Amino acid sequence: MSRQPSEQPKQIDLRTDVPHSARVYDYLLGGKTNYDPDRAAGDASVAAWPSLPVSMRQTRFFMHRVVRRLVTEHGVRQFLDIGTGIPTRPNLHEVAQELAPDARVVYADNDPIVLTHARALMRSTPEGRTAYLDADLRDLDSLLGAQALQEVLDLKQPVALSLIAIVHFVLDEDDPQGLVRRIMDELAPGSFLALTVFTGDTDPEAVAGVGREYNARGIPLQIRDRAETERFFDGLDLLDPGVTLVHHWHPDPANDPDEGRITDRNIAMYGGVAVKRG
Asked: Can you tell me the distance from the alpha carbon of 243 to that of 249, in angstroms, rounded to the nearest whole number?
């Protein structure tokens, strides 16, 4: 059933005069929810590293493959997606509920632009449930204590935590690995972590240019290497093939329009999936 956000502010200041990470992402994926400053930031970032849109698209495909595998091979029926971004079909719940109509999904994001599109994230199957939280990854007490989360998800049962293309916006001073560990500590044994990390390992100079463009425009962005990525999975059991560039994680050539046209230098995102053992 469709559910509306429990509380929405009467007025939302979208700050269309400055670039926003969610809108830049939307622009580079070919979306329409963006403004001149977002397009300028996107164009400058692509000038620094022309493969950025390809890497973003492959990260999206990674999320689709992860959800399908968790549903079909591991029986996951509950998802917590933090850092949701502007809805781009198919959204996580659409991928999950196509295979398991009773799947339940809670989305969380603190971006005003995402809140305005929350209805698109609430169109659940009759058998399942979805909810949207206006919440910040850095404020876990508020996020984990939210009534909507408690109503939709049973935290005594396994949950898949999805952190796709979000932790590079959390700087080291905010201890992103510690935040992830704390969430996983609250989830039941048998829960999963699916996470991606923006990296410069494949094309350091060009990807560093993306970081400079984002940071110069007021969008804090931190690029991390493989060792830093692996620390997000400390204490968990990584599924095969471990931490890898996203296009190498159980590739699906039949559903990949970039198949045969990309190399590792076109990808700046590590991905991995791990399980919390009992």
From this structure: 8
Whether this model's pTM surpasses 0.85: yes
Task: Write the class of the CATH domain 21-275.
Answer: alpha beta
235 CA to centre of own chain: 21
Decide: residue 36, CB within 10 A, 0-12 exposed, 13-18 middle, 19+ buried: exposed
- The whole-number mean pLDDT for each consecutive block of 10 residues of the chain, a chain of 278 residues, reads 44 82 93 94 98 97 98 98 91 97 96 83 93 93 95 97 97 97 98 98 98 97 98 98 98 89 96 95
Interatomic CA distance for residues 191 and 57, integer angstroms: 26
Beta strands in the chain (DSSP E): 78-82, 104-109, 129-134, 160-163, 192-198, 237-238, 244-245, 269-275
